[in-house]
């Protein structure tokens, strides 16, 4: 385990909305190849944290480093080009486009074609399109829904649309993928399929940072967990350590998780 290298470092990150401190001086480091979970009650600041890391929201103070490069004040597309992509808490698919077209939109950050050259229909443009389609198909195969490539996206079951979003996040071959509540709304079969996809992609070298309320998934696939409550980091560690942290249990896991505490302690 000595060859671990940090890929993402969040240092004293803070976000204030008006009078509300949504994220309060949070620090943690994600190592390359990890599956890293952020958990905490509703309104804890988890999505706000993701929005700052991906440049959707500016931070109020603190620093974010990705492979030692500072991300503060970079635009979302620049952060994507550096190798961080994400999915959102709410489903964000283009309803009227086919599944493969949806996935292809995730590739534009690495495509050379711009509007001008696309309009000229140059052979190089056509080649790039074909290559992008091939990559989109590979991404769909990786998440197990390539048979749905030419369906209109909004006709897919919810779980397949979630997988489509992950294929779209993966097509640009990012180093780090952020998933905001990927299991929300999935049935148990769909959740199981998604867990398999995440584990397989991690084996291929991808690093995952994810927010999730489904504790069974969090505890079974995470290498490290950070717990946030009311914007403040209240715990950090392996799943076993988190389940044994009295402050975390009191603030978040609560009494109804007693069974789980025993199972994972
Ligand atoms: N754009 C915004 N403007 C003002 N306040 C915001 C904004 N986004 C989030 N907040 C507030 O910041 C706090 C943290 O919200 P956030 O969405 O990050 O929580 P969360 O941990 O993702 O919750 P959930 O588990 O419900 O998704 C909340 O009090 C929320 O109301
Ligand atoms: Mg959220």
Automatic annotation (TrEMBL):
Record-level Gene Ontology MF annotations: ATP binding; ATP hydrolysis activity; L-isoleucine transmembrane transporter activity; L-phenylalanine transmembrane transporter activity; L-valine transmembrane transporter activity
Which SMART domains does this entry report, sorted A to Z? Answer: AAA
An annotated GO cellular component? plasma membrane
Q: Which organism is it from?
A: Ureibacillus endophyticus
Listed name of the protein = ABC transporter ATP-binding protein
What are the alphabetically sorted keywords of the record?
ATP-binding, Nucleotide-binding, Transport
State the InterPro entries in the record.
AAA+_ATPase (IPR003593), ABC_AA/LPS_Transport (IPR051120), ABC_transporter-like_ATP-bd (IPR003439), BCA_ABC_TP_C (IPR032823), P-loop_NTPase (IPR027417)
PROSITE patterns (UniProt xref): ABC_TRANSPORTER_2 (PS50893)
């Amino acid at each position: 385990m000595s060859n671990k290298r940090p890929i993402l470092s969040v240092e004293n990150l803070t976000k204030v909305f008006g009078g509300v401190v949504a994220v309060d001086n949070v620090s943690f480091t994600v190592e390359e190849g990890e599956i890293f979970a952020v958990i905490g009650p509703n309104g804890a600041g988890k999505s706000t944290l993701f929005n700052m890391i991906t440049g959707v929201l500016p931070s109020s103070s603190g620093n974010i480093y990705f492979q030692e490069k500072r991300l503060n004040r970079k635009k979302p597309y620049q952060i994507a080009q550096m190798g961080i992509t994400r999915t959102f808490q709410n489903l964000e698919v283009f309803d009227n486009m086919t599944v493969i077209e949806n996935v292809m939109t995730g590739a534009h950050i690495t495509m050379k074609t711009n509007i001008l050259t696309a309009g000229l229909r140059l052979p190089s443009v056509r080649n790039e399109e074909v290559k992008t389609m091939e990559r989109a198909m590979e991404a769909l195969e990786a998440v197990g829904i390539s048979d749905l490539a030419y369906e209109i996206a909004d006709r897919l079951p919810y779980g397949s649309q979630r997988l489509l979003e992950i294929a779209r996040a993966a097509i640009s071959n990012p180093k780090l993928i952020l998933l905001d509540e990927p299991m929300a709304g999935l049935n148990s079969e769909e959740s199981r399929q998604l867990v398999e996809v995440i584990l397989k992609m991690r084996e291929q070298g991808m690093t995952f940072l994810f927010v999730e309320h489904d504790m069974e998934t969090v505890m079974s696939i995470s290498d490290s967990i950070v717990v946030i409550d009311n914007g403040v980091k209240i715990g950090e560690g392996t799943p076993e350590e988190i389940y044994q942290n009295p402050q975390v249990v009191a603030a978040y896991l609560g009494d109804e998780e007693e069974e789980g505490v025993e199972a994972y302690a």
